[in-house]
Amino acid sequence: xxxxxxxxxxxxLLFSCGEKKEKKKDKYNFRPLESIKKPCDCVDHLVExxxxxxxKMKSDKDYNMDNDxxxxxxxxxxxxxxxxxxxxxxxxxxxxLSDCDSFEEMKKxxxxxxxxxxxxxxxxxx
Length: 126
What we know:
The chain contains five helices and no strands. The protein has helices at residues 2-25, 39-59, 69-86, 90-97, 103-115.
């Protein structure tokens, strides 16, 4: 009887422990960088990353994007990947990406995140 009780108590714990680790891994579920095929895909990936930060800010009042290293690292990875893939200078990058459809959206989102003193989002998709 004691063994049965022990099994009944331990089995749920074994299954519940693994779920939390899996959820942390897929916390943001970013698209793979390999899906970037053309320069404008770089902007799309950055917009997607910024939107994840906006979503977190809206749902969690204590959220501070400056402390979210996962999002910062993802933005850095996108930038580095694109710089390596397309081999452009800073000036070329700006000229090429400014022609992308989602470039203005990215600028608005980034400006809203950076300039707002409480890190609340003033810009909602217009």
